[in-house]
Amino acid sequence: MYVSFASAGSGFDDLTTMIYKVIPMMMQVDMFKNYIQRLTEIVGVDESKKIIGSALVILSAGTNDFTKNFYDLPVRKLQYNISGYQDFIQDRLQSFIKEIYELGCRNIVVAGLPPIGCLPIQETISSQLPLTRICLEDQNSDSISYNQKLSKLLGNLPSQLHGSTILYADIYTPLIDMVNNPHKYGFEHTNTGCCGTGLAEVAPLCNALTPTCEDSSKYLFWDSVHPTEAAYKFMTELFLKQFL
């Protein structure tokens, strides 16, 4: 059984959800509480606790916080340097983990940041005429330092949250390898998406009216932000080997 409370465009920073007008992360916790109540009504208290306690919870957020609030619409730069904003986001993440732990979750996987500077939309926003499309090394470096902090944070949490297993999912390494060695994975295009021009389209801009590439398996990205099914397949196989 799979249950998702995800809201596209959300993040740990409430400012992110205001920009995208999506469901805040803490409201997703409220939705989870409602789910637990409904589950308890169906299977009873003991079985409900067993289901929640043995479930695998996957948290994947943070990219939108940095792209919108720090790089593209740099509102948070007025308050934080990059290290300070990383700490702010991870404080929110830690609070989120502790909240769902109190609700009974014990097995949690947290994804780090991707190489943000290699997302097609970030390359497009930073490009100058004539159009140059290369990864932004400063944003990638920020992702690396964030992930290093995150890995350390998650490694320390189980000692505070008795009986928990909290794992760090490194999505940066496989994605940057796909960017640098595309033919190893069968990709021919790594800096444009399959949808539309591949330069700026994202989410609802990819629809039935938008032309797409003939073979998405040759593309690393589906739109200008999200990887293709082929890319996710490679990452899933890697994580299954790593965690299981």
From TrEMBL:
SUPFAM superfamilies: SGNH hydrolase. Gene3D superfamilies: SGNH hydrolase. It holds the Pfam family Lipase_GDSL. GO terms for molecular function: hydrolase activity, acting on ester bonds. It comes from the Eukaryota. Belongs to the 'GDSL' lipolytic enzyme family. This is GDSL esterase/lipase At2g30310-like. It comes from Cucurbita maxima (Pumpkin). The lineage of its organism: Eukaryota, Viridiplantae, Streptophyta, Embryophyta, Tracheophyta.
